[in-house]
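During the second year of the project, the team shifted from modelling isolated chains to modelling whole assemblies. The rationale, set out in the original proposal, was that interfaces cannot be judged from single-chain predictions alone. As a representative example for this report, we include one of the complexes processed in the last quarter. Its constituent sequences, exactly as entered into the pipeline, are reproduced here:
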Amino acid sequence: MQLTSAQSSLVVMAIYLSFALLELACTRLFAKDEQTRHDGILEVVSTLMLLVVTQPLILFTVGAIGQALVPQYANALAGIPFLAALALFLVFEDMMQYWWHRASHSFSWLYNLHRAHHNARYM
Ligand SMILES: [Zn+2]
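Output from the structure prediction step:
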């Protein structure tokens, strides 16, 4: 099965939404001990910033860099099976989250953007 770009994007969004709903259903996301209303607002704003600004910026930047440096590899993975694409997505997305978070704690200018995430008392 080969998906179009739009279908792949919908699958990615569905996966993200599924994990978000699982986290909402299975954790006390907005009802942690010592959590304030401000913490909840910060969580929502941070999530929206991640989805609307940070991740699209990273994806378009990486796409532009890839197109500039190695244009011959454009669509190199377009024909792989859906399950392989899903597995690659989950691994690379998780790695991106890990390295982004680690960089946010390693570079002071990034930590200044990230530290609000750790200001809550429950953290
Ligand atoms: Zn952190």
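The chain has a mean pLDDT of 86. The chain is about 70% helix and 0% strand.
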